[in-house]
Design a protein that fits this description.
The protein is mainly β. The protein is 8% helix and 47% strand. The chain has a single domain (3-134), classed as Jelly Rolls. It is built from one helix and twelve strands, in the order ββββββββββββα. The radius of gyration is 15 Å and the shape is globular. Bound molecules: thymidine-5'-diphosphate.
């Protein structure tokens, strides 16, 4: 299955401020095996440029903002992450690029698998071929 969607996280807050909890199997619809974060991204940098074969991920801009370009092989869409109460869930063969990082952006990514280079498709033509076979 190939899809992505924005998930709204419930913000728990009181006079002290805000708190958001992400729990495996509830608002993160997969087992979380890995967490990584991207920060200190230099101006004008674009990252990603790959798809994954099996990986499920949830990306959250816990601070600042950035834009994902998501491509399923037939259409491209841009999704801006600019609020810690929003998660971008991605599963299946989606080519993703990230751009327009604000200087203060901290992008946290929850992943369903350990890091595995063999799960990456880094060649766009190969991705298009795989996406065609997948549909
Ligand atoms: P890269 O895949 O280029 O990041 P992005 O897709 O966000 O542009 O990853 C940068 C480097 O970090 C690369 O050498 C692989 C390594 N890496 C890990 O070791 N573990 C991880 O979980 C991730 C995401 C990357």
């Amino acid at each position: 299955m190939t899809s992505y969607k924005l998930v709204d996280f419930k913000t728990l807050g009181d006079e002290r401020g805000s708190l958001i909890a992400i729990e495996e199997g509830y608002n993160a619809p997969f087992d979380i095996k890995r967490v990584y974060y991207i920060f200190g991204t230099k101006e004008g940098v674009e990252r990603g440029f790959h798809a994954h074969i099996n990986l499920k991920q949830m990306a959250i801009a816990v601070k600042g903002s950035c834009t994902f370009v998501l491509d399923d092989g037939t259409k491209k869409e841009e999704v801006k992450l600019d609020n810690p109460n929003k998660g971008l869930f991605i599963e299946g063969l989606i080519w993703r690029e990230m751009k327009d990082f604000s200087e203060d952006c901290v992008l946290v990514v929850l992943a369903s698998e350990h890091y595995d280079e063999s799960d990456y498709i880094r060649d766009y033509d190969k991705f298009l071929e795989e996406a065609k076979n997948d549909s």
